[in-house]
């Protein structure tokens, strides 16, 4: 059964890095990083919030199409509201797939440092500017706290404060367990 694997976590937890590596090593897996979809929409930099509203339905449609074809979808996306998570869980169910939710946990300070330390990618540079406009570290701290407060009993916790290689091995072990955490 195909799976929609949601890697949730605060900005800087390593979601995108882990997802890219996993997809690279698992042929057919769709790495549905919605931040990579934003630049496909004209005016995304000037209208970042509006672009996000356009990207989410596109991501849901892409996920459903890929799942119905029988392949896993990996969604490395911070979602701090249960209503948004529920949309992706529903898309999985409607596509005959399992929904696996994994929350990457790392101390707030670690996430803030990692987020601020990403360089060399124009998208990351723009994301930093957007976050700065919304309050910078205060906004990132609020996002971290919002995620921590979510009550998601079926979500798997993954310690993301360790080196990337250790976190990736833990992700592989979790996904190979077969428990799936289907909702």
What is the fold's blueprint, element by element?
Layout: E1 3-8, H1 15-25, E2 30-31, H2 34-37, H3 48-68, E3 73-76, H4 82-94, E4 98-105, H5 108-117, H6 122-133, H7 137-149, E5 156-159, H8 164-176
Parallel strand pairs: 1-3, 1-4, 2-3, 4-5
Describe this structure in words.
The two termini are 13 Å apart. This protein has a 5-stranded parallel sheet with strand order 2-3-1-4-5. The protein has a single domain (3-176), classed as P-loop containing nucleotide triphosphate hydrolases (Rossmann fold), CATH 3.40.50.300. α3 runs parallel beside α4. Helix content is 53%, strand content 13%. It contains 8 helices and 5 strands. With 183 residues, it is α/β, with parallel strands linked by helices. Residues 178-183 have low confidence and may be disordered.
């Amino acid at each position: 059964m195909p799976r929609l694997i949601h890697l949730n976590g605060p900005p800087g937890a390593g979601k995108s890095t882990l997802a890219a590596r996993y997809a690279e090593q698992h042929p057919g897996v769709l790495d549905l990083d919605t931040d990579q979809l934003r630049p496909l929409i004209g005016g995304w930099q000037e209208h970042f919030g509006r672009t996000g509203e356009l990207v989410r339905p596109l991501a849901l449609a892409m996920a459903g199409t890929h799942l119905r074809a029988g392949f896993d979808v990996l969604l490395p996306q911070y979602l701090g509201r249960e209503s948004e998570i529920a949309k992706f869980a529903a898309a999985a169910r409607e596509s005959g797939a399992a929904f696996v939710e994994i929350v990457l946990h790392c101390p707030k300070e670690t996430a803030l440092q990692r987020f601020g330390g990403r360089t060399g990618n124009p998208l990351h540079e723009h994301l930093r500017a957007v976050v700065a406009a919304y309050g910078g570290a205060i906004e990132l701290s609020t996002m971290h706290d919002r995620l921590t407060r979510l009550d998601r009993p079926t979500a798997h916790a993954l310690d993301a404060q360790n080196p990337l290689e250790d976190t990736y091995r833990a992700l592989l072990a979790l996904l190979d367990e077969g428990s799936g955490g289907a909702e």
